[in-house]
Amino acid sequence: MRDCAAAAATFAVVDNVWLGIVARRPQKVTGFAERGASSMRAYINHGLIGATVFLTPVLAAFGALLSRAGGLTTRHQLGRP
């Protein structure tokens, strides 16, 4: 969970520090024009908030399920109940 939040924070810092470069990407320009956000910074940060709020808990839950499955598999291979 911590890694996903750190990745999202990294994207937020990079996107805001180099906003002039990020704002020239065709995908960002098109999305900004379609959404009608108040500023390019608000448009970019809105996308990052959604990813952070959704992906962090979902990936944490997925990791917990996979770690549980791995633990059960290892226990089964070692002959433990």
Topology at a glance:
Layout: H1 2-17, H2 19-22, H3 26-35, H4 40-77
Helix content: over 70%
Distance between the termini: 30 Å
What is the radius of gyration computed over CA atoms, rounded to a whole number of angstroms?
19 Å
Structural class: mainly alpha
- The overall pLDDT average reads 80
Order of helices and strands: HHHH
- Largest β-sheet summary: none
Number of strands: 0
Beta-strand content bin = under 5%
Number of domains: 1
Number of helices: 4
Given as residue ranges, the uncertain stretches (5+ residues, pLDDT < 50) are none
Give the overall shape: elongated
Features:
81 residues, 4 helices, mainly alpha
Walk me through this protein's architecture.
α1 packs antiparallel against α4. This protein has one domain (2-77). The protein has 81 residues and is an all-alpha fold. The model has no long low-confidence stretch (mean pLDDT 80). The protein is elongated and about 60 Å long. The protein has helices at 2-17, 19-22, 26-35, 40-77. Helices cover 84% and strands 0% of the residues.
Briefly characterize the structure.
By secondary structure, the protein is mainly alpha-helical.
